Please model this.
Amino acid sequence: MREEKNKVFKKVPKKYQPKGLTILYEDVDILVINKDNGVLTIGTDSQRERTAYVALTDYVKKGNPRSKARIFIVHRLDRDTSGVLVFAKSEEAKIYLQENWAEFSKTYYAVAHGTFKDKAGEISSYLIENNQYRVFSTQDPDKGKFAKTGYKVIKESTEFSLLEIELFTGRKNQIRVHLAEAGHPVAGDRIYGRKDNRAKRLALHAGSLTINHPFSKKPMTFTAEPPVGFKNLVKNRQGSDENNESDRS
Model:
């Protein structure tokens, strides 16, 4: 093991703290943040500068462009999805986390249109992407990748349901596609959803992530509460939700 593993992590001064990102945890191996919606994880052909990756790279360099400090992408969240996002601070840590990613626990929160007949359940399909980068389900396992999403209704109104979602697999747009195809698209989803101005953003949030630390191998859980706006959506128009299920989020 590297000698630096035994060093005590020194907190970075506030003047280098990245804007639009909340650091939940950091040590010499990993960096965990709560990402705002509207922020890319990593750059695209049209947007390379304003990303979590760029902001956090500058952060770990502490203002020194010659610094060899860097971060490594472990997983991604869509631009409009907020919540817990973990980066590695070494190639070794990145490889460990990615190789064991399927074993880690991921919980999301979403506000979906309508009310669910079954208040808890699972949705499974094979997902495939077309030439327009739109993801959809297929019954042909040779064409798509298996995806499984678990959900539980934790609060509902006459028009919306607040869901706690367990992600068993991590396919592109998996939650959004599964809920849309079930007839309950995520509120604010401009690609797979409905036109409705009540949701000012995509109502999807990565609320909890449990991993094994890449060095100590001890389990660690990181959480980020869903935005207040999610709960505000799940209210009857009369402003009363006395008959809704208790809010356990």
